[in-house]
Design brief:
The protein is mainly β. Helix content is 4%, strand content 55%. This is Cupin domain-containing protein. Residues 38-104 form the Cupin type-2 domain.
Length: 106
């Protein structure tokens, strides 16, 4: 799935918070990578897992607690972090937050 036309958009308007839920919206999905937006309500999380490729997380609203290989990072609006390939990682919404996840597979 790739965009058919070019448009200017605001990330914050593209995904909405939902009570007691984590919501996702895929913007680009190719064999070589993907870009997905997420909105996590406070207290929601993504359980620990690993991926065979690096993933870049950009927080564009709120604040997240991100766990990577036993280390905890507080990542706030306007900040980003790279989750290295093959390292266990997890996310938790300390406050509700929105993020863009970019994964490059090649």
């Amino acid at each position: 799935m790739a965009p058919e036309t070019a448009t200017v958009q605001t990330l914050n308007d593209m995904v909405e918070y939902q009570a007691d839920a984590a919501v996702s919206k895929t913007l680009v999905k190719q064999k070589t990578g993907s870009v997905t937006l997420f909105a996590f309500d406070q207290g929601q999380d993504l359980s620990e897992h690993t991926a065979p490729f690096d993933a870049l997380v950009y927080i564009f609203d709120g604040e997240a607690e991100i766990f990577i290989a036993g280390e905890t990072f507080q990542v706030k609006q306007g900040e980003m972090i790279i989750m290295p390939a093959h390292k266990p990682h997890a996310l938790k919404a300390v406050k509700k937050f929105k993020m863009m996840l970019t994964m490059i597979r090649s």
